[in-house]
Amino acid sequence: MGAGRYDVIVVGARVAGAATAMLLARQGLRVLAVDRARFPSDTISSHQLQVPGAALLHQWGLLGKLTAAGTPPTRRVRFDAGGGLVMDGQFPAYDGVDAMYSPRRTLLDSILVEAAREAGAEVRENFRVTQLTASGNRITGITGSARGRPAVTETADLVIGADGKRSLVADAVGARRYRERPVRSFASYSYWTGVPVSGGEIYQRTGRAVAVFPTNGTRSGARTGPGGRWPGTPASSWTRSRRRA
Ligand SMILES: Cc1cc2nc3c(=O)[nH]c(=O)nc-3n(C[C@H](O)[C@H](O)[C@H](O)COP(=O)(O)OP(=O)(O)OC[C@H]3O[C@@H](n4cnc5c(N)ncnc54)[C@H](O)[C@@H]3O)c2cc1C
């Protein structure tokens, strides 16, 4: 490609950034991925890797690493909607994979970061990007620093923002916001051992839901509140409950 030190710089190196860095590096590009976090580390997410996501990991040769680290497959899900309505079934296979997985992000993100490095990408952890550099209306790179070190500038033909919900990259380029919604509910999750689950279980009642899925490390990750499209406790009643507590 062009004159930058790197072909591509990816800001953020979790599921989106590390996977992008890995795929581009596998194509032979010079890739730098940076993240202000260190890996393994956690982030807020309730872990469900749906079947198409698991199929991608399989395609990339990484699903075996997830299972070798003790992440059990979930082939069945039981959905109890209340009032005696229960749906119980198996996931249809997608690209040869017939299960979803619920790995902790400490594991999933680390597998992807390691795979990016194995593919030849340079991954800098503990590196916070503070601004993008530009020439005219073209982004040319990043400025940032590793913890306690002086700021450096790195250049690339393409800078990709995979830096999450409050993306510095999106702000810097004035990316249009869409589908914004006010906070309406909350979710919490915790880890339990000794819960006898055979697959995923979801229970929904008016205004709330709870789900249990097996994860690595301990037997189950249990979640209350909304996951995906399940309604959770409205934020207003959460605030009321906290005031009462
Ligand atoms: C409560 C909850 C439950 C969820 N449950 C699920 C689920 O079950 N299944 C599912 O598929 N999704 C779930 N999601 C969504 C999922 O967490 C996100 O879609 C996913 O984490 C986005 O990944 P990402 O790599 O784009 O960004 P992130 O995971 O947010 O990673 C962004 C990275 O960018 C880094 N970064 C940010 N700014 C900078 C900077 N200036 N310099 C350097 N690094 C920077 C951060 O350190 C971070 O590591 C859930 C989300 C929430 C909030």
Strand content: 25-35%
Low-confidence segments, given as residue ranges, are 225-232
- Structural category is alpha/beta
CATH architecture of the domain at 6-47 and 104-173: 3-Layer(bba) Sandwich
User: Which CATH C-level class of the domain at 6-47 and 104-173 is it?
Assistant: Alpha Beta
Walk across the major sheet and give the strand order. 7-2-1-10-9-8
- Counting DSSP E segments of at least 2 residues, the number of strands comes to 14
Number of helices: 6
CATH topology of the domain at 6-47 and 104-173: FAD/NAD(P)-binding domain
- How can the largest sheet be summarized? 6 strands, mixed
What does this molecule look like?
It contains 6 helices and 14 strands. Mean pLDDT is 89; it is low at 225-232. The longest helix has 14 residues, at 105-118. It has a domain at 6-47 and 104-173: FAD/NAD(P)-binding domain (3-Layer(bba) Sandwich), CATH 3.50.50. It has a 6-stranded mixed sheet with strand order 7-2-1-10-9-8. The protein has a 6-stranded mixed sheet with strand order 5-4-12-13-14-11, with no helix packed on it. The chain is of the alpha/beta class and 245 residues long. 30% of the residues are buried. The N and C termini lie far apart (60 Å). Bound molecules: flavin-adenine dinucleotide. Flavin-adenine dinucleotide binds next to helix 1 and strand 8.
Essential attributes:
245 residues, alpha/beta, FAD/NAD(P)-binding domain, six-stranded mixed beta sheet, 6 helices, globular, binds flavin-adenine dinucleotide
